[in-house]
Design goal:
two-stranded antiparallel ribbon; mainly alpha
């Protein structure tokens, strides 16, 4: 009933290893025992499953994410140090997440130049090293100093590899209708006030003479300078300036 297959693996029958058993297997792995390594991988596949749930809304195939997560798990097993007083899951989860995020960035529909990605990945690596060294989150200035790059270049590179977010991604759900990203975005250009203002301007323009309407249209809707307007309609720049001011004053009475 609870059988769910991912990459041909029946997830309902995945083994779970105790901490004691895992330490025994890690000792064997350090001695070159490939069978112990395979047992460690199989015994921690549930860890990969728990991580890929975080990326379910990215539109990626679960099988692909699972395989990439397994790569991160294997890297964690190969690099785990028993001498450190930390649980394996605590060490492995960031490795698995990092591998999946790297896969998503490299396969993102938003293409980023190779040089920019290289700077970003180096910045992330420096960040991780500084976290381990300082015991806190480093500032951008500290990262840029280590890379010997301008702060702005580091910030730009890190922003460039951020994963795009769907407007329909839910950000809150209390059991009722979810709130999506698009619900938190406002359009300042197309609000009611702007719509009414546009109507007022069009109606006020109708109160002007043809020459005044032409001057305001060229100046404010086509971006022409007063000198360009003067040359186009055959009058002096001083006359354009005077007519423009008079027309704006006249319009203000009807708005």
């Amino acid at each position: 009933m609870n059988k769910v297959e991912i990459c041909g693996v029946n997830t309902s029958k995945l083994p779970v290893l105790s901490n004691v058993k895992m330490r025994e297997l890690f000792v064997l792995v350090k001695q070159g025992d490939d069978e112990a390594r395979d047992r460690l991988v199989n015994g921690n596949l549930r860890l990969v499953l728990s991580v890929i749930h975080r990326f379910n809304n990215r539109g990626e195939y679960v099988d692909d994410l699972f395989q990439v997560g397994c790569i991160g798990l294997i890297k964690a097993i190969d690099n785990f140090d028993l001498g450190q007083n930390v649980r394996f899951s605590t060490y492995a989860v960031p490795m698995i997440i990092g591998e999946i995020r790297r896969y998503l960035r490299d396969n993102s529909p938003v293409r980023v130049s190779r040089s920019l990605r290289d700077v970003a990945y180096k910045a992330l690596q420096v960040r991780d090293n500084l976290v381990a060294k300082l015991g806190r989150e480093p500032s951008v200035d500290e990262i840029s100093e280590q890379l010997q790059l301008p702060r702005e270049e580091v910030v730009y590179a890190l922003d460039a590899i951020q994963e795009p977010v769907s407007l329909f991604e839910p950000i809150y759900n209390d059991g009722g209708d979810p709130i999506y990203v698009m619900d938190q975005i406002s359009d300042e250009k197309n609000d009611d006030a702007g719509w009414l203002e546009g109507i007022s301007i069009r109606e006020a323009l109708k109160k002007l003479g043809e020459r005044e309407r032409t001057i305001l249209s060229l100046r404010f809707f086509h971006g022409r300078t007063q000198m360009e307007v003067a040359e186009e309609i055959g009058i002096s720049q001083a006359q354009v300036s005077r007519l423009e001011k008079a027309a704006l004053t006249h319009m203000a009475k009807f708005m």
